[in-house]
Every structure is written in C-alpha cells, then in structure tokens.
Amino acid sequence: MSARARALVVAVALCVALPLVTAGPAASETDPVGVWPLRPEPQVVRDFDPPALPYGAGHRGVDLLGQPGQPVHAALAGTVTYAGLVAGRGVVVVSHGATRTTYEPVAAAVTVGQPLGRGAVLGSLELAGSHCFPRACLHWGWIAGDTYLDPLRLVGLGPVRLLPLWRDEPAVTSPVGLWLRLWGAPAGTPFAAGPW
Ligand SMILES: [Zn+2]
C-alpha cells in the first residue's frame, strides 16, 4: 500500500470513529447537570415561556407540582444569595457563579451566604403564593444575568425534548447521557410525559 493510500485509510478510519466518541445531545454536554428540586421527579404543570420584553407577559420559569411542606432541593451546588419574602411570598435564590436558580413559594431553611451542595434541602414548599393555586407547585427559575433560561435544561430536558425520541439514543454513549438515563425516567419512558 502506498503512503498516500495509507493516509487515506487513516483519514477514513478517523471520520468513522470520531462521531462515535463525540455522539450525544449538545444541550446536556454544555449545560450544568442538576437535579430536580422536588422528589420524586415532579410533574411539570406549566412550561417556561420567556417574555419577549423585560416586563412583558410570559412565564419566567417552570411550575412543578408538589405537596405543601414538601422539601425543596437546590438543583445545583451554590451559595444562597437570598432567603426571604418578596411580595409576601417566600423566595430562595442560589447563586452558581454565572447563573442563579430561584425557588418559590418556599419557607426557607437556609440563610444568605450558606453554601449548598447539589440536592441539599433549602426549605419547604408553601401553598400561599402558588402559581397553580389551589394546588401547591414550585416555581423554579434559572437566570443568567438578566436573561431567563429554561430550568428544565438542568435536568436534561428543555430544547432536547422537542427532538424526535430517537435523537435521545446516542446519549447512552456519553457518560453524562448515561448518568441522566440511569438517574432519570425508567427506560422507554419519554421525558416530559404527561398531559400538560
Ligand atoms: Zn410559575
């Protein structure tokens, strides 16, 4: 085999091999990997609907169905930057450096400046101020600077679930995807199942 032919064989082999190594959903490889703030995995009763204008109508987070008094967990490790009342509603904000997550209505069990590990309990869910009253639900937000993000991205959902289900399959080849799958829904259960 000539040197040129050998080089061609190597190039072809690389082209075949590389996608296998790098396959996986883009979102879960660039977003931090967090946990649901409610356990077991809650039903999403209202989706993220970012406003077109800073004070426009929309939904600046997602609503997760829960029970009054249920423990609320930090989605990511961070530091508490707010724990108190906003317009009579209990709010906890956890900073993760470039972004922060918000939880309401919550009776805070933490204080400002307190470091939290991922999944640490930060308070308990309240009924008053619920976005889905008379049911209890957690309004969960994720913010980068002044920009509201879809917090479901932290648990491997968000934009990914708009793709056909077969696009999830390569996730098994990536450690992050495999971890999410082991930790998440039972095999064969589509993410975001439910009527909402
Ligand atoms: Zn809400």
| Overall pLDDT confidence | 78
CATH architecture of the domain at 44-153: Distorted Sandwich
| Number of helices in the DSSP assignment | 3
The main β sheet shows up as: 8 strands, antiparallel
CATH topology of the domain at 44-153: Glucose Permease (Domain IIA)
Strand residue percentage: 25-35%
What does this structure look like?
The chain is α+β, with helices and mostly antiparallel strands and about 200 residues long. The model is unreliable at about 10-30 and about 160-195 (pLDDT under 50). Strands 1, 2, 4, 5, 6, 8, 10 and 11 form an 8-stranded antiparallel sheet that branches. It has a 3-stranded antiparallel sheet with strand order 3-9-7, with no helix packed on it. It is built from 3 helices and 11 strands. It has a domain at about 45-155: Distorted Sandwich (Glucose Permease (Domain IIA)). The chain has helices at about 5-20, 25-30, 175-185; strands at about 45, 60-65, 70-75, 80-85, 90-95, 100-105, 105-110, 115, 120-125, 135-145, 145-150. Zinc ion binds near residues 59 and 131. Zinc ion binds near residues 59, 131 and 139.
Task: List strands and helices in order, with pairings.
Layout: H1 3-22, H2 26-30, E1 44-46, E2 62-66, E3 71-73, E4 78-86, E5 89-95, E6 100-104, E7 106-108, E8 115-116, E9 121-125, E10 136-144, E11 147-149, H3 175-183
Antiparallel strand pairs: 1-2, 2-10, 3-9, 4-5, 4-8, 5-6, 6-10, 7-9, 10-11
Bound molecules: zinc ion (ZN).
Zinc ion is lined by residues 46, 59, 61, 63, 131, 139.
